[in-house]
Design goal:
Elements lengths: L1 H13 L2 H9 L14 H7 L3 H9 L14 H8 L2 H9 L14 H7 L3 H9 L14 H8 L2 H11 L2
Helix pairs in contact: 1-2, 1-3, 3-4, 3-5, 4-6, 5-6, 5-7, 7-8, 7-9, 8-10
């Protein structure tokens, strides 16, 4: 079983759907954790493997699982800028207000890295603008600090709803 689990990480990293299916059918654990604390879902989503991510979710992968630093798949795709995967994760119940080890959220990642399409998506899904990271900063504070006026406008638009 352990070998199936380790093979699953390689298959999801490259998006080898037939191998993923075979491994899951043979008992690979879709919620296994590697030495770095990653789950197959985190690896698939971070490597922009949309269909592998979908397959894992449909096989019961925990959409809110986190790595050793407290980062979820949603946080990773908000950092990387993968809108379709973020939409998929949210449609499967990803908690967009979870905080990682330093208190950051998916919205904060999207804001910090100028992923304004993701800022809008997260706001549409009810991201909490009141959450503060360990430094006491909100996503809006970070947008101002980073010089991301578009994110500021998007968040302000939702503050007035």
């Amino acid at each position: 079983m352990e070998d199936y689990n380790s093979q699953l990480f390689g298959a999801v990293r490259t998006g080898d759907l037939s191998k993923i299916k075979e491994l899951i059918e043979n008992g690979a654990d879709v919620n296994t954790i590697d030495a770095r604390g990653f789950t197959p879902l985190i690896v698939a989503s971070y490597n922009e493997q949309l269909e592998a991510t979908r397959m894992l979710l449909e096989a019961g992968a925990d959409v809110n699982a986190y790595d050793a630093g407290g980062n979820t798949a949603l946080m990773g795709v908000c950092f990387k800028g993968y809108l379709p995967i973020a939409e998929l994760l949210l449609s499967h119940g990803a908690d967009l207000n979870l905080q990682h080890g330093n208190g950051g959220t998916a919205l904060m990642f999207a804001t910090l890295f100028g992923r304004n399409d993701l800022v809008r998506l997260l706001m549409e899904h009810g991201a909490d603008l009141n959450i503060k990271d360990n430094r006491g900063l909100t996503a809006l504070d970070l947008a101002v600090q980073q010089g991301n006026p578009d994110a500021v406008l998007i968040m302000e638009e939702y503050m007035n709803i």
